[in-house]
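Narrative of accomplishments. A recurring question from our advisory board has been how the design workflow behaves on a single, concrete structure rather than in aggregate. To address it, we present the structure tokens for one chain from the evaluation set, followed by the sequence designed for it. No filtering or post-editing was applied between the two.
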């Protein structure tokens, strides 16, 4: 095949393609819906959930997770473009790391030293790790199967 034939062939394939941003947004929306459905089926919201969500320890989990997700999506969208410089973007990961460090420092300040190790692992660590992984699966699956 000659170069001109390849160029003509590529130019003839003019099917509209979904932009990366819209595909990612759709995958995140479908995945979030799947994760919420799994949460409702497996765990079901507790009766004191609104009050519990205002607790600083619980709120910090959401803040760290959402900041990491936002930075990750932003970096992914930037790095898939040709010529992107990954070195300048690595420092954005310091944002969720800094938020986490502030949260850990605050927790260590308000918790007595004898409660540090039990608080590090918790009572439901295996249960929590397996459910967090399970609820993250719809987001991963949604991007894989969406056009």
């Amino acid at each position: 095949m000659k170069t001109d034939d390849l160029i003509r062939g590529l130019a003839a394939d003019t099917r509209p393609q979904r932009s990366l941003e819209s595909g990612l947004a759709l995958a995140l929306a479908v995945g979030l819906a799947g994760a919420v459905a799994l949460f409702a089926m497996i765990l079901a919201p507790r009766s004191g959930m609104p009050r519990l969500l205002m607790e600083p320890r619980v709120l910090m989990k959401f803040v760290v997770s959402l900041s990491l997700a936002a930075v990750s999506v932003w970096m992914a969208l930037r790095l898939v473009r040709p010529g992107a410089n990954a070195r300048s973007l690595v420092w954005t990961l310091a944002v969720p790391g800094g938020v986490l460090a502030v949260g850990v420092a605050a927790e260590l300040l308000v918790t007595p030293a004898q409660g540090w190790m039990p608080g590090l692992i918790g009572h439901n660590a295996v249960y929590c790790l397996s459910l967090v992984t399970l609820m993250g699966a719809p987001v991963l699956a949604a991007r894989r199967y969406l056009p």
